[in-house]
Specification:
The protein contains 21 helices and 15 strands. The protein is of the alpha+beta class.
Amino acid sequence: MIQQTSFAPKWGIFIVLGLAALLLAGYLAYALNLTGGVLGVPLDDAWIHFQYARNLSQGNGFSYVPGVPTPGSTAPLWTLLLASIGLFTDDFLLPAMLFSAALFLLTIWLTYRLTLDLTDHVGVALLAAAGLAVTGRMVWASWSAMEVTLFTALSVGGVWAYQRRGLTGLTAVLFALASQTRPEGHVLFALAVLDTLFAWRWPYAEKRPSATWKNLTAAVLIYGAIQLPYALFSLSVTGRPLPNTFYAKARQSTLYSWRTLRETLQYHWQDNWLTMLLLPFSLPTLWRRNRLVGSWLVGLWLLLPFIVPFLWHHGRYTMPLLPFQMIAAAVGFYWLANKFWHNRQAVWLAFAGLWLVVGLWTAPYWAGMLGYNAREILEIDVALGDWLAANVPAEETVAIDDIGTIVFQGPRPIVDLNGLVSPEMWPVLDDADPPTAAMRLLATSGVRYLAIFPDWHPLLVSDPVIAQPIQRFRTDTHSIIFAQEAVVYEMDWPYRQQIEPQHEETAVFGDRIRLRGYDWLANEQTVDLTLYWESVTAVVENYKVFIHIVDENGTIVAQTDRLPVNGLAPTWRWQPGDLVRDVHQIPLPSDLTPGRYQVRLGLYTEANGRLPLSNVSFPVDFITLLDWQHLLISD
């Protein structure tokens, strides 16, 4: 054991906490300067929690849209805690921010206590606590009003209880509460169970509470009992045991995302590269005293790429590992000091100074990021929510990307295009052609408005006949939202509930697709033709529509060949009874002479040719839709 040094008194933790409080105040002041004095949070997701908490506190159950139960929060415990705020006020913003900041200070103290138990050395414990206090991403998270600091505090507290007591009932409760704050907590508890089993074969070199089958069984039962209510609620609503948000985000095309691993390690290196260099030297001490610290730190780094294809929100899913990174690094320095610099105060002081400088180096960046992120949320999400509340009737269903502020500002029926609170979007997100799947789902769900980032859905809003922009919102920076513009569109979907064509027509192609009628208008430059299709049965093939304008000799003078609705409503997507409006514009030659012309149309595939009509007694593979005697031309 290293002899205690005079420069590391036990009351030093209060200096560290004071430093953390000053940094919190400085970050907030800097952010307010960037937002023009308007208080805001750096993530729209915070407003999702506010909405759940408000509904819960007002007796609407665990719902996002009042009266529609949905397990759309991966942090039910955070939601429950925020609901206590809702008993007194509808203004969640400042109380939630203060709460998450206070939990950051608690995490620093817990980090100090855990490290002290691991090393019996106040200086090492202060190093770990101070390293966490000056980590810019954690200070950013502390003002996010998100569950990050709650999960971090519970996970550090759970590992500390495991260090002191082993896997007992109290330890199981802390781990279970952590899992009710973030689903990654299940991994932490699983590692604790494995470590308990592992310890029976390779016990810790230093004395630790011994585990028994009785204690282990009781811990597992306690843990499971705390998980059960929300899991049953999720099962009853979606048929799956985990929250919507997990399934909405845990989607990737490959088994393992090396991008996620690379980005994770880059973030943690940038937090404090000195701590990353020290991690390998912590292994001897951690093996003897607490294998869970290292296995949780490295394990989540390696596991996350199996779950998500890339990182969101500055890597916030691994921010709770930062205390363990600081603990392991401090323990690594403890081992090196014990090996080479035993009781050399100058070395300790120099290292502590370097440790703090490396951590504080990124403070201006993260303070600015807090402000820029909050400003973007204010300029896009808050402004969009205010506009919808004032201009779109509350009973209208709106399909949206960022759902938090919009619904909190004006509760209404929504379809969440990312599936966080709308499980009906999961098949769309997993579909081979998501835009056309979304087109059909939104049309048949009665959605009239989109409030989206058009860069995320370029095909969905590519046709001005379908999507008419009515309001735009922009931000100058690009720091947290993946797009700089949000647009509200009024939609006129190709899939119709009913049709009223100007001209009725009955033509059935191959007993599969019926033409119900058309609208048309001819001028000097174009023939504007709107076709109304009905799907007789589910269609497998991807048919194209050909439209030929022919003269009296049958010669084609103008034509179009394309998929229905420019490919946004392909025939293979149609289901029995679908009604589809298909708008075409056929350019006419500038030298077209007056005369008699016909419009012919049909359906075909490149592989199988034209689809014959099945409601006529003679073989024909097109229909003559209309003709006109004279084409008006200018003199």
